[in-house]
């Protein structure tokens, strides 16, 4: 099994329900042997998260702390009208965007409706992957989603924290089996993430990697195990490259 070098979906205390600073996260990343840390705060729509002016000032943060390269992202909410919860003027400051459905600011529109809203948002060129597309509280049409992911060069996330909170993310393991099967069939990329909200959980992806191994998933399709793939697909619309 190839080692993962980057955790690309993580939160610091400015998300409002996470508990560490950027430096604490970078320190933990270094301890865990990560080369790259992507920090992706929640966008407006999640109670208590940071004002978007935060993203416009990220250039003051060093690109490398404790020997770990930092990438700036945001986990942006997909809204019921098929738009994103962060304006383009802020998205422009990100290295890449993650998009996802969160029940705190979304009402289930049925599998086809939810999928169409995600696909509408995927067309923003900064969108690199879809967070936790695994929850039958807001079901998805996976065939439709993965065909669009192929078209727009967007990856699907295998979110390790979903395996831990299966009481909240309905049917997520079965859904990940479907996703991994279709990603192999259509040659669509995936990103494996911790979605850590506390530094000790960085690089925790044991459950996700176990399923990937069990399914004999093609490791070539995992993006966060190779700098060239990260440059090409995660930073596809970014002026910054690793
Ligand atoms: Zn999320
Ligand atoms: Zn998250």
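Q: What amino acid sequence fits the structure above?
A:
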């Amino acid at each position: 099994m190839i080692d993962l070098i980057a955790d690309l979906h993580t939160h610091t205390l400015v998300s409002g329900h996470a508990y560490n600073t950027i430096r604490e996260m970078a320190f933990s990343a270094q301890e865990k042997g990560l080369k790259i840390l992507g920090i992706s705060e929640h966008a407006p729509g999640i109670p208590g998260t940071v004002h978007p002016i935060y993203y416009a000032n990220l250039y003051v943060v060093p690109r490398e702390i404790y020997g770990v390269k930092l990438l700036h992202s945001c986990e942006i909410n997909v809204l019921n009208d098929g738009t994103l919860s962060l304006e383009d003027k802020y998205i422009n400051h990100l290295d890449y965007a993650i998009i996802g459905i969160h029940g705190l600011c979304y009402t289930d529109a049925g599998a086809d409706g939810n999928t169409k809203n995600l696909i509408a948002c995927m067309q923003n060129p900064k969108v690199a992957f879809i967070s936790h597309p695994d929850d039958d509280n807001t079901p998805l049409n996976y065939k439709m989603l993965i065909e669009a992911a192929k078209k727009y060069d967007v990856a699907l996330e295998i979110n390790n924290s979903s395996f831990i909170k299966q009481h909240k993310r309905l049917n997520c393991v079965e859904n990940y089996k479907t996703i991994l099967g279709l990603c192999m069939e259509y040659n669509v990329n995936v990103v494996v993430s911790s979605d850590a909200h506390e530094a000790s959980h960085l690089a925790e992806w044991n459950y996700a990697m176990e399923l990937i191994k069990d399914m004999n998933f093609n490791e070539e399709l995992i993006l966060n195990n190779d700098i060239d793939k990260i440059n090409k697909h995660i930073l596809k619309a970014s002026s910054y490259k690793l």
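Q: And what stands out in the fold?
A: The chain has one domain: 6-234.
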